[in-house]
């Protein structure tokens, strides 16, 4: 577990650096430019914000994993309680689910997307 914890701490540090650097970029503004420049800058700003949100989410997951390691309940699937394979933990060290529960969750999410009303109406029309 110490190997995984070290990996998580390193990734945490890297993410914090990336978030800080990207915040510095978002503060930079061009003083001269036309509407096209403004539009491109706005798109870049939105993309940067999206990336920052994803980095923050990943950072939260990493911090939660570190807490689970310290509380001696790391590597246990939150859904079924079975141990998560070490190989999976090495690849996705902040995972909370074993591969079977993760696949089931993704399968159910896929079913929910297909159950939207507009999809149901299409089948009724056939």
| Mean pLDDT over the residues | 80
Gyration radius from CA atoms, angstroms: 21 Å
Q: What is the domain tally?
A: 2
Order of helices and strands: HHHHH
Indicate the overall shape: flat
Describe this structure in words.
With 126 residues, the protein is mostly helical. It folds into two domains: 1-74; 75-126, no CATH class. It is built from five helices and no strands. It has helices spanning 2-27, 35-70, 86-91, 99-114, 117-125. α1 packs antiparallel against α2 (35-70). The radius of gyration is 21 Å and the shape is flat. Mean pLDDT is 80; it is low at 116-126.
Essential attributes:
single chain; 126 residues; mainly alpha; 2 domains; 5 helices; 0% strand
What's a quick, concise take on this entry?
The protein has helices spanning 2-27, 35-70, 86-91, 99-114, 117-125.
SSE map:
Elements: H1 2-27, H2 35-70, H3 86-91, H4 99-114, H5 117-125
């Amino acid at each position: 577990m110490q190997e995984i914890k070290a990996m998580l701490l390193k990734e945490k540090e890297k993410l914090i650096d990336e978030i800080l650097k990207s915040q510095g970029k978002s503060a930079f503004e061009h003083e001269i430019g036309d509407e096209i420049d403004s539009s491109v800058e706005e798109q870049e700003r939105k993309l940067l914000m999206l990336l920052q949100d994803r980095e923050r989410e990943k950072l939260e997951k990493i911090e939660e994993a570190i807490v689970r390691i310290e509380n001696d309940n790391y590597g246990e699937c939150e859904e079924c309680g079975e141990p998560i394979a070490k190989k999976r933990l090495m690849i996705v060290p902040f995972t909370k689910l074993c591969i079977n529960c993760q696949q089931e969750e993704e399968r159910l999410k896929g079913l929910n997307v297909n159950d939207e009303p507009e999809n149901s109406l299409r089948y009724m029309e056939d």
